[in-house]
Structure formats: C-alpha cells, structure tokens
Amino acid sequence: MRSLLHHTLPALALAVALIPAGAHAEDFPVKNKTITIVVPYAAGGPTDRVARDLAEALRKPLGDVSVVVDNTAGAGSTIGTARVARATPDGYTLLLNHISMATMPTMYRKLPFSVSSDFEFLGMVNDVPMTLIGRPTLPPNNYKELSTWIAQNKGNITLGHAGLGSASHLCGLLYQSAIKVEMTSVPYKGTAPAMTDLIGGQIDLLCDQTTNTTGQIEAKKVKAYAVTTLQRLRTPALKDLPTLDESGLKNFQVTIWHGLYAPKGTPAAVQKKLNDALKQALKDPEFVKKQEGLGAVVVTDGRIDPAGHKKFVLAEIDKWGAIIKAAGSYAD
C-alpha cells in the first residue's frame, strides 16, 4: 500500500497542478458567494451611485446572486483600485472606476499597479456630463454674471474637488486653464463631503458629474451655471443650462466615463459571463431610466466589449497625460 501511495500521490499532485485555472469557470457564479464591486471613492458620490444601480441590474443576468458595493476610498482612487489588482482573480471582486483609470498613470509618480497590465477590461458602462455649480449664496444667477464675478474676485475664489485625480479635480483644472484664472483648490475625500461644504457655503464652486449634481440642482440647494458638453442636455432639470462652449469657452468638453474591471488572470470563461451579464444589465429599462434621469448616457457602442473598452482607455491615458503634464498636477 505504501508503495502504491508513494507512486500515486505525486501523480495526483501533478494532475491537479495541470488543471487549467479556469477549469471550474462554468460554475461561476456560485449561488452562495457574493460578488463585490469595489468603488474606490466615498459612499454617496456619483461613482458610488452608478455602482449601486449597476449592482442591482447585474443580479438577474448573473442568476440572482448577491452583488454588493464596497467603498474603499482614498488617495485619488488608488487604494481601492490596488485592492482589486491584488484580489483573487476569480470574478468575485470587481472594480468600477471612472476616468481616473486614464489619469492615474500620469498623475502619480509611483503606482502599486499598472492600469494596462494588471486588469481585465470587462466593458464600459456610461458617459457622464459634468456641471459647473456654485454655493446657494453665490451672487451670480447665470453664467454671464458668474464670469463677471470671477473677474472681479480673482485670488479669492475657492474651487472644491473630490481629491487629486478625481473627475471634479480634472474638470476644475481644465476650467481654470480655459478662463485663465487660478482659484484656490480645496481637496476633499470624495464628492459627498465637497458637496456638503458647497451647500453649506464653505466653498464657492464645484465642477462635478451630473450623477451627483442633478438632484441638488432640482432641489435648488446649489446654483447651476453650465454643462460641459457641446450640446445642451435633455434631462428636465438641466435642459435650460447653457454649455460652456456656447458661453464663450469654445470646444470646452469634459465627459466622465465609467468602466468595469476584474483582476488580471480572471479566467476567460468568467470574463465572458461577466461581460454578457453587463450587456444585459445595460439594456435593463430601469437601469437606463435611472441613468438618463441623472444625465448619464448608457454605453451602446464598441466600448461595451472588452477589446473596445481597453483600446478606449489606453487612448484616454495618452490624451489626459498631456493635459496633466501641462497643468503640472502630480502626486507621489
């Protein structure tokens, strides 16, 4: 018996070692296992909201498994993003992130991961316009008046953002560059605290995604001045806002996008199941309605496929790299 085991056990060990990593991918997802979508920003922010709507829309196409959102905020989204890069590549830990995936490679001198090589690209989710808004007590009532007010208050204007490399930070950089006025930058640990201080009058301006600003604009808790698209938006609460382009800042355009990612090495069969589920989720009438209500546009083009998603992000890395270098915004 000992002789038999002596010869059999090594053979069994070798056979197990030779089983492909994705051999059991056909079982994905297991009913009693939770899929976690990591959002690398604070709860209550725009990306968090998109993630929670997406998690709900993904449950049915994934076989009614539990899909939850976990906020791992900090360091301009690098902490949460690094967490997913290090996660077990089995499809149960995913990342939802926005344009930060394109700006981090230039924004940070050292990153604990590579955007291009440490992730599997599962598909884009949406495109989100941005809005330039102000505190409720700000004197200007429209963009023309705001331009005059900014010219008269140079050196005394505060512009909040959700942290280095965040969507609001990038929009703020471009806006200051476009109008050639430098404002006092006030960073926060997420959009929610920045919005709280804007409503409370602690900061003057904020340029943020419609997913986070539409409700505040509707409730008249902030003053809305312009949108960052080349055409006006059709969302009821925002349809009367002028574009910055028509207001004199020609070709000013900032649109924030969100994409879904898995750790590098996630089995191809699991990636396909996740991409198939994502495509179904993006057609969910309730999800589409929620996104449209926030001014976001659900992706329907080639970026919904992994190859198209990755090609787009790599091009965005080049695009934003030049902008960030020109602005001189870096972090260690």
TrEMBL record:
Residues 1-25 form the signal peptide. InterPro entries: BUG, Bug_dom1. Belongs to the UPF0065 (bug) family. Keywords: Receptor, Signal. It comes from Extensimonas vulgaris. Pfam families: TctC. This is Tripartite-type tricarboxylate transporter receptor subunit TctC.
